[in-house]
């Protein structure tokens, strides 16, 4: 083998090594896209219990039934409040679309007024029912809305995770940046930190129970803690069913008014 | 005697509730509320009310029933129990059938009743109570047919339920549309007969970007017209005596309601064309005391939210077609409404202001309210209603400005 052939061999080996390395360490965008594309199930239903804890440790509990379905036009979600008594029967429906930039359609039904009312979906930064979650925190954020980069790896509760920093393309976004710990095994973000526009840590989201149901990873217990206000909100998802064949016409005015 | 009846009714309701509560598919909910109100003008306590509102429901498969008995104690007097709703329903694959006394609410507007033509309104305290308490119930059959996001609703009411007007001599009694105080004959109401039924239909669609409803009805007007049956005219003086007969009469209406999203704003509109309705006029011009006219009512509005606030604005016009100058009501009446609301302290404190503004003449009703959820079950509220102007739908109550406070326990 002459010197020229040796050089070619070494270069080829280096190229393959680079490709292998690239394949082993995906970019931040690829990771967040994989998180976004993770199978969610055709439909998911269950009971949500939301516990709001104030800075003095006092708890308020809300429970609701939630059904989510994925259809050709996008995702449809219906939530019906079961407690407390003064909001029992109140329902909230959201239709979100795959088209980038298209606003969601949202409606609310208030049993006292016996009327379904279309509401603006632009208050995505507002608190969801007084909790530490905003409407945006609870939705699936499209990866194209942020610039992503991998800042390292870490093990969380025995799970190997990539650490991905995401900076919104829109400087007026609710947060200045988020940092997500994405499980290499499940492609679920098991921890996320939210930073305010001063660069200070605002909230931390942790997932404490994750289960595979019908081959879909479902988050069963999660907590959002606001470290600046010392408040927190726990959400538990129970009696979960995945892919039970919920038809699209379950997401209608009729379902909102009569409950699930 | 009456107190005894009330106590028996109370006992029966509680026995039913207790029996229901232990059964699968049954639910007992409701609230107890107490509130007191005073007039700003002389600090007189004009409202002292305690309410027990029970919601009893039971479902067994596709069938169910719901009852909403309400007990009031007002100004120290226990009133007869009110059955606000009591119906049974059956849910089929693509239809719902509901029979009995029920509230049927239509329309997209807030605080306006343009296409909300089925359930009568209780205006005994004008527009001061919460809107949910202003709407009454009707007795009849309602059939809803569904096809995806499309729905067709058919309503048959065999018995007419009139609206409730402010009692004569009460704070809210409006000025009568007559030149002298008349003598009233007995009210003429439609008798219980199949011929006197009311019929309504509504098609509605809820979809991507917009919602639409088209409705119509052939019904009895919720408020009576007044037919002049006798009058005394003195030359040079005018009418000195008048006798009128309140009569409910048939009319019809057809209308639409729509709402849609335009970026961050929800646009909404509703309108209705009303068949012949009776408008009071000069008894010397109109022998019966009224003229029959067609009319139009329409609303355009928008809702939005920003910086944690939610806002709403509506522009409403009432137009009497082929108007005569001798009618009491003006040809065109323009009203606007404004609402602003915001929650604080993790949604436990809510501040809201709802305002009606009449434009000609300029007058208004401003209803601010503060609600604090002390716990998930107990709320305290403090509110006011302020009438501005000297005349017009709202200004005529200028001396009725009041404040109220109270507490509500939900269970």
How is this fold's topology laid out?
The complex is a heterodimer of chains A (about 260) and B (about 400).
Chain A: H1 3-24, H2 28-37, E1 43-53, E2 59-71, E3 74-83, E4 91-97, E5 105-110, E6 115-119, H3 135-138, E7 146-156, E8 159-168, E9 177-183, E10 189-195, E11 201-213, E12 216-226, E13 231-242, H4 253-258
Chain B: H1 2-21, E1 26-39, E2 45-60, E3 63-74, E4 77-78, E5 82-91, E6 95-102, H2 131-134, E7 138-147, E8 150-157, E9 183-184, E10 198-206, E11 210-220, E12 225-234, E13 238-247, E14 250-262, E15 265-280, E16 290-306, E17 309-320, E18 332-344, E19 349-359, E20 362-373, E21 378-388, H3 392-395, E22 402-410
Parallel strand pairs in B: 9-13
Antiparallel strand pairs in B: 1-2, 1-22, 2-3, 3-4, 3-5, 5-6, 6-7, 7-8, 8-10, 10-11, 11-14, 12-13, 14-15, 15-16, 16-17, 17-18, 18-19, 19-20, 20-21, 21-22
Overview of this structure, please?
- The complex is a heterodimer of chains A (260) and B (411).
- Chain A is built from 4 helices and 13 strands.
- With 260 residues, chain A is of the alpha+beta class.
- Chain A has one domain: Lipoprotein localisation LolA/LolB/LppX (outer membrane lipoprotein receptor (LolB), chain A).
- Chain A has a 13-stranded antiparallel β-sheet.
- In chain A, a hairpin with a 5-residue loop joins strand 10 and strand 11 (201-213).
- The longest helix of chain A has 22 residues, at 3-24.
- Chain A is globular and about 75 Å long.
- In chain A, 28% of the residues are buried.
- With 411 residues, chain B is mainly beta.
- Chain B is built from 3 helices and 22 strands.
- Chain B has helices spanning 2-21, 131-134, 392-395; strands at 26-39, 45-60, 63-74, 77-78, 82-91, 95-102, 138-147, 150-157, 183-184, 198-206, 210-220, 225-234, 238-247, 250-262, 265-280, 290-306, 309-320, 332-344, 349-359, 362-373, 378-388, 402-410.
- The two termini of chain B are 31 Å apart.
């Amino acid at each position: 083998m002459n010197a020229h052939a040796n050089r070619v061999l070494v270069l080829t080996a280096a190229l393959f090594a680079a490709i292998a390395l690239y394949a082993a360490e995906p970019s931040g965008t690829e990771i967040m896209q994989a998180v976004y594309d993770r199978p969610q199930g055709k439909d998911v239903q269950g009971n949500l219990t939301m516990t709001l804890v104030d800075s003095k440790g006092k708890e308020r509990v809300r429970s609701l039934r939630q059904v989510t379905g994925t259809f050709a036009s996008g995702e449809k979600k219906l939530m019906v409040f079961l407690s407390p008594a003064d909001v029992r029967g109140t329902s909230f429906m959201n239709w979100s679309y795959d088209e980038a930039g298209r606003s969601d359609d949202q409606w609310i039904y208030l049993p006292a007024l016996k009327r379904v009312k279309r509401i603006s979906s632009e208050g995505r930064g507002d608190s969801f029912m007084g909790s530490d979650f905003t409407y945006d925190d609870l939705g699936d954020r499209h990866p194209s809305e942020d610039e992503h980069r991998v800042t390292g790896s870490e093990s969380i509760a025995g799970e190997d995770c990539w650490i991905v920093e995401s900076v919104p393309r829109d400087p007026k976004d609710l947060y200045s940046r988020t940092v997500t710990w994405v499980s290499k095994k499940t492609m679920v973000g098991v921890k996320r930190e939210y930073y305010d526009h001063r660069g200070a840590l605002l909230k931390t989201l942790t997932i404490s129970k994750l289960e595979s149901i019908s081959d879909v990873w479902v988050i069963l217990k999660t907590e959002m803690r606001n470290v600046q206000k010392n408040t927190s909100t726990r959400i538990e998802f129970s009696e979960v069913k995945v892919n039970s064949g919920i038809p699209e016409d379950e997401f209608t005015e009729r379902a909102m008014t009569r409950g699930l | 005697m009456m107190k005894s009846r009330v106590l028996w009714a109370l006992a029966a309701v509680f026995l039913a509730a207790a029996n229901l509560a232990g059964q699968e598919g049954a639910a007992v909910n409701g609230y107890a509320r107490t509130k007191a109100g005073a007039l700003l003008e002389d600090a007189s306590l004009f409202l002292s009310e305690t309410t027990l509102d029970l919601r009893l429901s039971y479902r067994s498969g596709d069938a169910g029933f719901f009852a909403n008995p309400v007990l009031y104690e007002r100004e120290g007097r226990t009133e007869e129990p009110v059955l606000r709703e009591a119906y049974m329903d059956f849910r089929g694959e693509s239809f719902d059938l509901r029979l009995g006394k029920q509230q049927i609410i239509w329309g997209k507007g807030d605080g306006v009743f343009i296409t909300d033509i089925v359930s009568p309104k209780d205006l005994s305290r004008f527009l001061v109570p919460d809107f949910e308490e202003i709407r009454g119930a009707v007795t009849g059959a309602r059939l809803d047919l569904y096809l995806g996001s499309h729905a067709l609703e058919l309503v048959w009411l065999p018995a007419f339920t009139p609206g409730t007007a402010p009692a004569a001599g009460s704070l809210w009694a409006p000025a009568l549309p007559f030149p002298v105080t008349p003598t009233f004959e007995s009210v003429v109401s439609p008798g219980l007969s199949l011929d006197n039924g009311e019929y309504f239909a509504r098609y509605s669609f809820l979809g991507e970007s917009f919602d639409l409803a088209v409705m119509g009805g052939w019904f009895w007007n919720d408020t009576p017209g007044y037919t002049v049956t006798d009058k005394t005219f003195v030359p040079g003086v005018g009418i000195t005596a008048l006798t009128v007969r309140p009569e409910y009469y048939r009319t019809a209406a057809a209308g639409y309601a729509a709402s849609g999203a335009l970026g961050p704003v929800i646009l909404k509109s509703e309108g209705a064309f009303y068949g012949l309705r009776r408008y009071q006029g000069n008894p010397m011009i109109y022998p019966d005391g009224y003229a029959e006219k067609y009319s139009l009512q329409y609303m355009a509005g928008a809702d939005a939210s920003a910086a944690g606030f939610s806002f709403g604005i509506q522009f409403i016009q009432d137009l009497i077609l082929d108007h005569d100058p001798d009618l009491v009501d003006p040809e065109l009446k323009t009203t606007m409404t404004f609402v602003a609301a915001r929650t604080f302290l993790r949604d436990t404190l809510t501040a809201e202001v709802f305002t009606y503004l009449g434009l000609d003449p300029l007058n208004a009703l401003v209803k601010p309210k503060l609600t604090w959820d002390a716990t998930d079950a107990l709320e305290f509220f403090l509110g006011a209603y302020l009438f501005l102007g000297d005349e017009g739908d709202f200004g005529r109550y200028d001396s009725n400005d009041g404040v109220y406070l109270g507490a509500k326990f939900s269970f």
